[in-house]
Amino acid sequence: MTYQVIIPVYWGTYPLIEYNMPYIKKYLGGKKIVLIGPASMREKLPVMEGVEFLDGNTLLQGMSRETVSDIIKDVCRENGVPFVDRAGWYFQQFIKMSYALRCEEEYYVSWDMDTVPIRNIPFFSEEDGKPQFFERPEDHEEYFATLDTLCPGKIKKCRQVKSFVNQFMVFKTDVMKELVGIMQKSTVKGTVWWEKILYAVNPKYITQAGFSEFETYGNYTMQYYPQLYHVTKMDQCRTAASFLTMRPDKKMMEWAGKSYYCVTLEEWSMDAKWQKRSRRLCKFLPMSVLVNLSEQIYTFKRRAKKAVSLIMPKGRKRSG
Question: How far is Cα 183 from Cα 315, in angstroms, rounded to an integer?
C-alpha cells in the first residue's frame, strides 16, 4: 500500500526534527514525507533525502495561523472570554484535514514530530490490507458537543471505540474530502469549513480543547464506512521523556523498542528521578514495567492527597 506521510511542524518542534527523522524514515514506510510548517523554517532545515517541505499557510487559500488566531480573538471578545492563543493547536488539525484536498494517493498518514517510531508501524493489516485505527483511552465530550453544533445528528460517537485521538492516523483521502464537504455545508457562521469549526466550538472551550480532527474523522468513518478500517490497539508510551530523556541514546531506544512501537518525547513529562532509575534498571526490567509502576505511584499519591483534603478541609489547621 502506497501512502504519503505528513508531519505538521513548528519552531517548538524544530529541535526534534534532526533526531527523529532517521526513525521516521526507517519505520513509517511512506512513499514520501512532507513536513508542513511556517515558511521561516524552510531555510533552516537540514537537507534530508526523500523529505519535502510545504508552507502551511499556502495549503488552503485564506487559512493561516494568523487567520485562525483572529477568529479565536473575535469569539473571545464577543463572549467575554479571556484570550489565550491556541491558534497553533487548531491550525495543525486543519492542516491534516486540508491536505486531503491536494493528496494524490489513496491514503495519507499524519504523524506528530514529537513521537518517535521504534518498530515498523502496522498502519495497514497484514491479513487483508485494510487501514487500521488504534484505539486510545481519551474521553472528551466537548469534541462531540462541537460536532453536534457543526453537523447536528450527522456524526455520532462510536460506542465500540473509546477514542480515536492519537499521535498519528491513517486517512483515506476521499473520505476526508467528503467529511470536509459536509462541514462546508454547515449553517454555522463562517465562510469556509475550518472557520465554521471554530465558530461551532462552545466559547468557553475555544481557548482549550474544543475540537479533534482524529475524533471527528474516526467516528465519521466508523458510522458511514464501518467495514473500511480495522480497530486495534498498539503499545505506545506518551510519557517516554520521563524515562528516556528528550534525546535518548541508541541503547535506551532499543530498550524502549522491546515494550513499545513508538514513544512520545515531550518536555512536560521530563522526570530526572525516573530517568536515573531507567538507566540503572534497563538491563533487568522492561520499560513498560517502570512506566506502569510510575503510573500506580502517581495514582496512589493523587488519591491520598484527595483523601487528606477531605479529612482536613482547606484552611483548617492540624492540632498539636
Answer: 50
